[in-house]
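Quick entry, no commentary yet.
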Amino acid sequence: MSSIALISTHNPEAIPYEEKLIASPYDVQIWIDYIDSVETALEPLRETVRKKKGHNDQAFKDTIEALSISRVILYERALRLLPGSYKLWKAYLTILMEGFKGTDESYYFKVKTQQQMQEGNANSISSKYTTGNFTILRSAFERSLVRMNKYPRIWSLYLTFLASFPTEITLTRRTFDRALQSLPVTQHDKVWPLYKEWVLKHGADETKVRVMRRYVVFDPAEKEEFSDLLHSLSRFGEAASVLAECVDDPAFISPKGSSTHDLWIRLCDLCSKHPTETKAHVDFEGIVRAGLDERSGAYDGKFKEMEGTLWCKLADYYTRSGDFERARGVYEEGLEKVGRVKDFGTIFDAYSRFEENCLEAKVAMGDDESDDSDDDSDGEEGKVEGVEMTDELKELLNIQQGKDGNDVELALARAEYLMERRPLLLNGVLLRQNPHNVGEWMKRRDLFLNMEGDAGGHLPAINALEDGVKTVEGRKAVNGFPSEMWVALANLYEESKDIEGARRTYRRVCTGREYNFSDLDDLAKCYCSWVEMELRLEDWEGAMDAAKESVAVPADYGFQGQQRAGGNKKKGGQVQRGLHRSVRLWNLYLDLEESLGTFESTKSAYLKCVELGVSTPQIVLNYAAFLEEHKYFEEAFAAFEKGLGLFYFPQKHAKPIWIKYLERFHERYKGTKVERSRELYERCLEKCPPEDTSEFMMQYAKFEEDYGLAKRALSVYERCAVAVPEEEKLKAYQLYIAKTETFYGATRTRPIFEAAIAACADADSVKLCLQYSDLEKSLGEIDRARAALKYGAQMCDPARDPVFWTRWHDFEVSFGNEETFRDMLRIKRSVQAAFSTVNYNAEQMDGQVKNLTDAEAVAMIEREEGLAEGEGGSRVSGFVSGGASAPVAAGKRKASEMGANNDIAALERQAQKIREAQNQEGDPEGGEGGDEEIDIDDL
């Protein structure tokens, strides 16, 4: 009744709610509306107090306190009737938490005496609920959890409340555990973040470890953080174990973004720096070897890129453990197994530093022992300066008195031996990268030969090449040929005076066919080296037997033309079966036969080579020369014929055989067998390519001149001029004309000139026209000479070929008249108009003008300008009489129009010199003699 009066005094709406509750006391909504009405009444009062800002607001504060107490009373009444309502409990605990946070925190850590409790507010309820008593609030949470223990939100509020008290460590930890036990696993994610944050901030070391160990079972992604925690607490063994689990789990994703490589490096660093602590928890060597071994499948070879680092970490692990011999073994194993130069450099540098440190420690230990002996003998004197041998250094070196001693020389020898072996170890790395690298196997042989002591010499080099020939496959060989290794292996046996071993090596690869070459020439090289070795040893029979064996035809070899499927590697046959078709071996065998064999055996060898179709043009020529040397000339010619049966036109190899054949035939018979010689030439020219025709035609014509008829010689020259390529026709016709003129006179060359002009290109025809004109002029046939010039003028552009027109101009000056001169100018204009639409590049134009000298250019320009100005006839005689009256300016303009690059001043000086020469030597009045002095040919 007192509570109702307390509420109704400040809240007039309380009476209707009380009446409703009498009728329906278990209606949750009525209780909530009733409590909301109290909250509604509180809001205006709080706003009023905030506005007055402390001025005479005690009455309002009393009212607010009374309504707050009434609200708490209403929650307690409601929850007494409805203890299972989550909504009521949630709202009630939230209200209590807000009131708790609004009080002074120092209050909750003070212990109140009984007297202080009695001196408080007379109303005990106000004292409990308005000051935020910790016990009351905790009691409310505990009462709520009787029914609400499956609601994570209630637990979250309770745990947040307890976590704010640093002194309640045990209570808070147990409450967290209760929450995890009460809630299902699917809702633990609401509790564990709070638990983790609290325990890392306020928990003891052991508590942190145990809680985090449980947490990583729930969330494995937190293993990395758990490992960091263990590492910070110096629990290195457990930290390494957790990191190993992270690395082993392929599905592990680091919340911090760390890759598997980063985790692996951290694990290696941890184990290598703390080998004693991690040895019981992690098999570090097993993990490292599993990561390095691609065949194990444990890590799918994902750590091969850090192979050198892993070997160094493993060696460092044993070094810090004090097991130096085991560390050396790891370094050696790493150098023997890594397959990349980068990893090799990493391991070798670490290994060399390890040996240097051991050497320095040994030296320091020796200095320390000498200091100790000096101190014992001279105790009263001061301590001798030196390096102090600490316990840590002794433990590092694992020195045991009476066992290891101070073996400085051994440590120094180890360091030096390591540096000496570096090239050999690096060569091993390159061979592991590509075991079919022939060049590296040869380099390995050289390294062993250059090494001193028992580790080097011929025997290790032989063993290295034996491994090489067993490893390298013919089709995969790079940086050399497999035959180089076999030859080098036999040479090593020969150098070591083991001749039988060298022969046994050649028999293995040649006769026994132990190695499957991919190229026929490789096996041929081995046979050649075998023969050369026998020759060096002066075993002529052995050399001959090896050469015969190399070219022997297999018994099951069916010759078909020049190829057979069994000896053709492109068709799947074995390469070795076609060895008897090797040109290299046949050349060697034939040389041996000529040097060591008889005439019959050599001849038989050549015949067999030709029959097999293996011979080359040089072999044919050698065969013929061999027969000629022994005076078998007809058989030599028969050898030429057999060679021509293999190499015939249009093959390029037929030309040297024909040249030598004809040369030897002429030397032998000269003019005694003319018809046979003609038949040979006709056979040669029948299918000879046009580019080679001229050479044989000249030789044929020369033969006819020496031993035949002039008519036949000229017919050959004519055939030559017709058959040769376009670019050689001019020279061929000129030679034909010269020979005709020699044999029959100049008049017989007229039809040849006409045919040559019709057959040659325009540029060549113009040259022939000039020559034809000169011929007719020498014969006094001026009209015929002029006709030749007229015909050539149709193909000669004045802009490109001024020499032709200058020659015609000089011809008309010497032999023409005004009418013929006008006719020349008319033809020149018409030709110039015909070529006006033709475009030439600057190089062509410049090249034509540069062919003239400065004097020629000036004279030509002056003549052209004078002709243009004196075309009407009044000035023609003046130009013909010397041309000196033509203006120099006009000459400059003409030179510019033609594109000449001559300097204008140079042209003026040259023109002046010409004028002076004309005035001194020619007729002062400008007769024909003056014009002759500046003729283009004289210039």
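second:
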Amino acid sequence: MAPARGPTASSLDRYRKKRDFAVTPEPGPSTAQHAAAPSLAFVVQKHWASRLHYDFRLELDGVLMSWAVPKGPCYDPKEKRMAIHVEDHPVDYSGFEGTIPRKQYGAGTVIVWDRGTWAPVGDPKAGMTAGKLVFRLHGEKLAGIWELVRIAKPGDKQEAWLLFKKRDEWARPLAEYDVIKALPDSVTAKPLGSVEEREPRVSNSRDEPQAGIDLSLAVDAPLPAKLEPQRATLASTLPSGDDWITEAKLDGYRMLARVENGRARLFTSSGHDWTKKLATLAAEVEKLRLASGWLDGEIVMLKEGLPSFGALQEAIGGRGNEAIVYFLFDAPYLNGKDLRSVPLWARRAVLAGLVDEAGERIRFSQDFAAPAAQVFEAAASLGLEGLMLKRRDAPYESARTQSWLKAKCRLRQELVICGFTARGGRDGEIGSLLLGYYERGKLHGAGSVGTGWDACTARELWTRLAPLEVDSKPYDVGEPKASRWSRRAAGSERWVRPELVAEVEFAEWTTEGVVRQASFKGLRTDKPARRVVREGGEAVTAAPISKVKVTHPDRVVDRASGVTKIDLVRYYESVAAWILPHLRDRPIAMVRAPTGINGELFFQKHAERTGMPGLTAHDRKLWPGHPALLTIDTAEALLAAAQMNAVEFHTWNSTVRRLGKPDRVVFDLDPGEGVKWGQIQEAAVLVHVLLQELGLEAWLKTSGGKGLHVVVPLAPRLDYEAVKAFSRAFVRHLAKTIPERFSPTSGPGNRIGKVYVDYLRNGMAQTTVAAFSARARPGMGVSIPISWDALPDLKGGAQWTVQTAREYLSFQKQDPWAQYWTTGHSLAAAIKRLK
């Protein structure tokens, strides 16, 4: 047994004396003895105190030796990062995340940026004494050999060291990869798994054995009457090594085929017989050279070569049924042989031979020889749902297993429909669906979804749900706070028996247990509601890798801040997941700065200028008489635009799908000469209060410049003329009611000492800078969404910049705009009240 180890009473004296443990949430020191762990822990904590820095900690002799590293670690051996040796910390501190209160030592917010184990190279105690500590890290972000070298001289007030990467297989130039900017978030909130498993520095060949197919574990057995399918576990990281088979995760319905005496029957994963529904597909299965067996696969509809879940639903309903394709990926039973104990690679090899001569509707689900990380990146860029990863030697088990994993580019799962709201408060069309899931037999609320269907589908959903209506909520457990409706919407919910299941795609599960940025994909008729459970986890996120070559990376974009072109591209790369929901499907206007923001600037709204890979140019018929409109719908397009010197991104108030019907109204609070920041904050509160009195909830963001933006989400029913008329009436009413605070006209001379609330952005083809966009102004401020509760502490409209915004976001636990995406107000009542 390893000897016990613990800190000496004096080793944590400095730590203890600096802190008041009745006030700070930091763990107190302990001299308790702990059994020696098999490995030594390390942690890097990101600490936003008086200034941002990184606390680098290595466990040794029962304490965490600690260094404050202002710039954080870097994989480039040429980068020697200053590291100030500070007091030892308790081992328990390695898991600390939270806020140290004001007036306490180290006041500020702490997150766990990286964690793992470390192994010293040589004697670590001797290394500390000599001032040269060499070690290997095994973390979620950091790996390879590193070195700490003491450079402090006797008498120095601070004990300065240097932290740097040693040259090995993990070393990378800073110009190629900046781990601080690429992976800024907490590994507690977003676990990544071991970087050595995620990005192995070894060959990852997946070639099948050439010596033949090993079926030695096959067993003679009668054909089972029923077969429960093997199910995959949701993964948050990608496994590595050559013992995994990687397939595309197909966006369809799981389907098993049972063949007996040459006749095929098709069953869903829940055991429902769909043979009659898919009679022509069953006939195709019967053409295989198979007397008896069970085949496992997925049925899909292909549109332009890619699976389409919506098209599959229509086909199952009878429209285009004969175009459904059955992708087979496993064969647990074939021709009197039970193959469930046979390794997966061998089962698939037999299946591939069986399907080889099948028609176009029966296909083999191919696997990919490339490393999983590369395949995942390609799948994400193609818009696929994700990957399936299966151990090569795994048996077939009728259960959810760890030998089958599913890695999703974007989270997606079934959720129970528990209620609905009517569109516009009128019967006939669904406005939103209220969702839930089962846990230990109890139904929990999971938030709502209000997008993803057209008017026809909204009517069909109404027809399906109205007969199921009940008087009370079906939830066994109370709804989470984040799913509760605004005061105006309260009472508009209508509840149903929890019998129908919706397929929903979403960005993440919030800390309150609701889906964020959800989109409806369709009803699932192949799965009973009682079997719907929360899968949890997160969409897999590979480390961001620029898909564009950045030319002139060192060109200074802003002289005031020193921001370079590569800084700007990396910023947009790091916030792609945040900004894309605000850009996607909206006509765009970009401010481009070919020589930097101090040079000539110009707007680009159409495709007639230099082309950018990935941007979507829409049919001119969309807006007759005008050049083609552009949209930025992918991270690739965003980075291509940044590479072509686009600094600002402005968007229409409508999407290309409903170009003439805005789905938001924006009020830009623009200060006149002599207006102080406190007056702008007060103006925002007054605008918010008046909107609430009109029954409208609003969301707030900084402009990235001098002011603030107040945004009201709308149901896209009225045209631009009507929405602009409302915004004009609102501003005039505001200025008439409080003339000493607001000006209704835009001229500089008309708003000295007042705030002008700009309504002109609500006209056709007018744009507003998107949330998370940088501004082409000295300092390069960024437009950032905030909560109304955060307004009093805001210091200005450009409080966050290209250099600080992403770091700020890494400390945020909740999305202040989470409910924005599922809210769509009608202006009818508000317009009447303003008249």
